[in-house]
Design brief:
- Two copies of one chain form a homodimer.
- Chain A has 13 helices and twelve strands.
- Chain A is of the alpha/beta class.
- Chain A has three domains: about 45 residues, 434 Repressor (Amino-terminal Domain) (Orthogonal Bundle), CATH 1.10.260.40; about 140 residues, Rossmann fold, CATH 3.40.50; about 130 residues, 3-Layer(aba) Sandwich (Rossmann fold).
- In chain A, strand 1, helix 5 and strand 2 form a beta-alpha-beta unit.
- Chain A is elongated and about 90 Å long.
- The N and C termini of chain A lie far apart (about 75 Å).
- Chain A binds a DNA duplex through helix 2 and helix 4.
- Chains A, B: Pfam families: LacI (PF00356), Peripla_BP_3 (PF13377).
- Chains A, B: This is Transcriptional regulator, LacI family.
- Chains A, B: InterPro entries: HTH_LacI (IPR000843), LacI/GalR-like_sensor (IPR046335), Lambda_DNA-bd_dom_sf (IPR010982), Peripla_BP_I (IPR028082).
Chain lengths: ~325, ~325
DNA sequence: GGTCAGTCTGCAAACGATCCCGGGATGCGT
DNA sequence: ACGCATCCCGGGATCGTTTGCAGACTGACC
């Protein structure tokens, strides 16, 4: 690989001039700049990012921490982060904590000296642990809220209100709720939103079917509860659970949406691959990642980590109800 | 952040000794080593990776390039790479080329100075372009073969042979083939394997239904061809296509597996979430990633890039037929 | 006690870039 | 012709670490 020194030699100038020709073009005369650029071109010169990082104290690199890359939700967030960072010329380190919150501080520590900032998608880990881990590093949270840290999340309250409004408009008055793990931050948020929406509507009863695992298997269990409780519609914590519910209902001869309507959350790809196609809430997952990077980069540009206004930044992206074939009017 | 200099001062030694105490413990006396280690502990000192990288000429970092992070296949590969690299203490840059082969050389170039080696999962890009892009950097290919580059792939020929053997054993003699994009390396490989297997079995006719998009939508189209050609079983390029086939057949009132058997490939999670559950071929996707990293790291340990034996390394991981409910005996 | 082998440690030079600082050249006005 | 401001450019320090080299010290042996 070619040096700044090599380029300088070929162009007949000093290394300082080479550096300036590339980073501060106005400080060098047009003719020499031309010579330097051509020499750099000929040698295929690219400034060594490591040396640059050492001198500047910035690595021009971002980090991303997710609980599970195989989870389509986080895969999309990752893709969004990746795309945005790439556009800005930032490579990004990706780490998968394998759903183990205790591993996160270590991962963050590993990143600390190698990145300029971190996007953190960590639905379950403890507040204090997190806060300590990210003490001296710009961090943006995804799908989670925390005092004095900037975050990007979906407006779940609104999304879930759209769901209940949809069901209410169809005529449903007894709606089952299949909740997710109690420890999930966004799960609690959705439940709150649901209760608030029910409150506003007045004449709809929320039947809490219980707390289930946020996977296909959890949905299988939830479906039986729904039937037992005699609800006319079920709102699931996420799409995977909703798919489990669909499968189990079909197995028991309960037809959807004629007998029971089912609504998911997230709009993962599979939602359109089943029949009936799933009514669900589309959350802008890659959008979350993109926005998080935008926030992080603007923070880095400003420079001071303790900028209060920035640290309090809370971004809420809109969710959108997608009506498909798994919801209909309740049976007479 | 604490320096080696800070640690040296606190321990009352020179920076050289600090460095040696951490990297070459035998070269320093037990007592001073103890002092240094304690001082380092107290200050929370970690050697600056950037400075280290500059001095050593190695970044202790890996790169991974995939065409699409939202594709479950590559999400799993990424997860495997991630897990293995993390265990070895290597952070990994992840880049998503967004299915655009022309973007790959640029991405690789961006990586070049920042990583010690690259795992490349690039099913479609041109050989020559690739070879040039990776000229001076250790690279391991995933799910793809190329002369003089080490690679890790699945034994597709064997996997597909298991599929055909299974169908043959059930009694199928007219088997439809829904191929993927012609440019896909592994697609061509599977087709070859299928033909070879048919040849060996002797009494089974392969009906090529055409080349379809490797998504749900491609399967919808393929299904109609299958019905038109009167085959009793269909082998799809991948699971998504198989799901499309299932959906379309159901829509047309063709029951699976009574009328037609359907087999996928990859064993993505969704394969178990549909009914009938999909018979498919499980490929060790995270295993591919893990093995690729193993190969890369051992290469880096050896040091010389032009080690012929290593460069020729071709790893073939076994595929496994998973029989579920979408295959059965053909109609009488 | 002097020599020598061996062990331990510090000095200083790298690695490759950036950037402060000062000097030379140039142009302009007087 | 001289002073002065302006513009370009090169020298060299710097970021934090590793490492070759040499000096200092210890202990042992003749």
């Amino acid at each position: 690989m070619a040096n700044a020194h090599d380029v300088a030699q070929l162009a007949g100038v000093s290394v300082s001039t080479v550096s300036r020709a590339l980073t501060a073009p106005t400080q060098v005369s047009a003719t020499t700049r031309e010579r330097v650029l051509e020499a750099a071109e000929r040698l295929g010169y690219t400034p060594n990012p490591t040396a640059r990082g050492l001198r500047l104290g910035r690595t021009h690199t971002l980090g991303l921490l997710v609980p599970d890359l195989e989870n389509p939700y986080f895969a999309s967030v990752t893709k969004g982060v990746q795309a945005r960072a790439r556009a800005a010329g930032y490579p990004v380190f990706v780490a998968d904590s394998e759903e183990d919150p205790t591993a996160e501080p270590g991962l963050v520590a590993q990143f600390a000296a190698r990145v300029d900032g971190i996007v953190l998608a960590s639905p379950r880990s403890d507040d204090e642990v997190l806060r300590k881990a990210v003490a001296h590093l710009p961090v943006v949270l995804v799908s989670r809220d925390m005092a004095d840290l900037p975050s990007v999340a979906v407006d779940d309250a609104d999304g879930i209100a759209q769901v209940l409004g949809h069901l209410h408009a169809l005529g449903h008055r007894r709606v089952g709720v299949a909740a997710g793990p109690a420890s999930s931050w966004s799960g609690a948020r959705r439940l709150d939103g649901l209760r608030a929406a029910a409150e506003r509507l007045g004449d709809v009863a929320l039947v809490e079917l219980g707390s289930f695992r946020p996977y296909f298997s959890g949905g299988l269990a939830a479906a039986d509860h729904a039937v037992a409780q005699g609800v006319t519609a079920v709102v699931a914590f996420n799409d995977l659970m909703a798919l489990g519910i669909l499968d189990r209902l079909r197995g028991r001869g309960v037809s959807v949406p004629q007998d029971i309507s089912v609504v998911g959350y997230d709009d993962v790809d599979v939602a359109t691959l089943v029949s009936p196609a799933l009514t669900t809430v589309r959350v802008p997952r890659t959008g979350l990642g993109r926005r998080a990077v935008d926030l992080l980069l603007s923070w880095l540009d400003v420079g001071h980590v303790d900028d209060q206004a920035l640290a309090r930044a809370r971004h809420r992206l809109p969710a959108e109800l997608v009506i498909r074939d798994s919801t209909g009017v309740p049976p007479a």
